[in-house]
Amino acid sequence: MGRFGNQADHFLGALAFSKGINRTLVLPPWVEYRYGEIKSIQVPFTTYFKVESLALYHKVISMDDFMNHIAPNIWQPQKRISFCYVQRSGEVQNSCNAKSGNPFGPFWDTFNIEFVGSEFYGPLNYDAHNEAMMDKWKQKYPSTDWPVLAFTGAPASFPVQEENVHLHKYLKWNQNIVNKSRAFIKNNMSGGGFIGLHLRNGQDWIRACQHVKDSPRLFAAPQCVGYKNERGLLTQSMCYPEKSDIIKQVKRALKKLNDIKYIFVASDSNHLIDDFKLALRKFDVSIVKLEESNPHLDLAILGQANYFIGNCVSSYSAFAKRERDFKGLPSEFWSFPSPKKIKHEEL
């Protein structure tokens, strides 16, 4: 579901689920949508991440290795059944219609997979921390009869279940991404620390933020407000902060931090480079961004910033925040807590 940030949330849940039912997780490719392309692109899992670090937590195998070396023996074409909770809409009645739509069709076509039937697993769910539920999965779908469970959608919730957040520590960038991020930092931000900023301000995001009032836990908002809104209410400013509020918050961060010489900006649309240069001219900082769009490299760089300010509602920001938490690096979010609350606490 969705783009990278959402898929990463789903991945952590699927990792927990596979361990819960004691099944090897076949690492799926990442689904990407590129400008001008009608169909989604499937990018191998290993393009961005290490397999060996995940193996420290549970048994995993890449999709390519599985299809080339394992599937011919245990998952022949005539045995390929798709799993879904209930039937999905599509061309076939009483079916998962596993290949209907995008990215579903392109995903399975990448590996020349056709399904001969469907299996509805409802009312089972994928709460990996419910041992009784995991036992039901094992009893209903023993590996002797069902060697492969191929799900139409990720067996995981969005946003990531609170109990699965800690699994992010096993998701590590591969050496290629690490080397590129370090080279960029060395070549463009040497001689001082840097603050990393994530701005979500594209038109699709502006439209999404219109639902804040009706969705108190919109997208990744639980990382700020809590999974039961126990830490407050989601506000419009937390989802789509005004430019003036962004500038004020960056200034506050610069005043409280030492030896910051650079501001690195990652954005899906407007990086506000000129606005930052004008507003921060008294702070003697340089404003930096990647020359060409590269969301994964952006994330790897944000994960190494001396300080990070991200978007509460964005699952992309949530990825950076989780990585930084496990590194022990400080972070905050736009307009959270509210500036009024901060001022009151300071008094």
Describe this structure in words.
The protein folds into two domains: 4-166, Rossmann fold (3-Layer(aba) Sandwich), CATH 3.40.50.11340; 174-333, Rossmann fold. Helix 6 packs across helix 12 (295-302). The model is unreliable at 342-347 (pLDDT under 50). The protein is built from 14 helices and twelve strands. With 347 residues, it is of the alpha/beta class.
Structural class: alpha/beta
Please trace the helix and strand order, writing H or E for each element: HEEEHEHEHEHEHEHHHHEHEHEHEH
Percent of sequence in beta strands = 5-15%
The main pleated sheet reads as: 5 strands, parallel
Number of beta strands: 12
CATH level-1 class of the largest domain? Alpha Beta
At CATH's second level, what is the architecture of the largest domain?
Answer: 3-Layer(aba) Sandwich
Q: How would you sum up this structure in a few lines?
A:
Helices cover 37% and strands 14% of the residues.
Task: Detail the topology: elements first, then pairings.
Blueprint: H1 4-20, E1 25-27, E2 30-32, E3 41-43, H2 51-54, E4 60-62, H3 63-74, E5 81-84, H4 104-109, E6 117-120, H5 131-140, E7 150-151, H6 175-188, E8 193-199, H7 203-208, H8 222-225, H9 236-239, H10 243-256, E9 260-267, H11 273-279, E10 286-288, H12 295-302, E11 307-310, H13 315-327, E12 331-333, H14 339-346
Parallel strand pairs: 1-4, 5-6, 5-7, 8-9, 8-11, 9-10, 11-12
Antiparallel strand pairs: 2-3
Organism: Papilio machaon (Old World swallowtail butterfly)
Protein name: GDP-fucose protein O-fucosyltransferase 1
Pathway: Protein modification; protein glycosylation
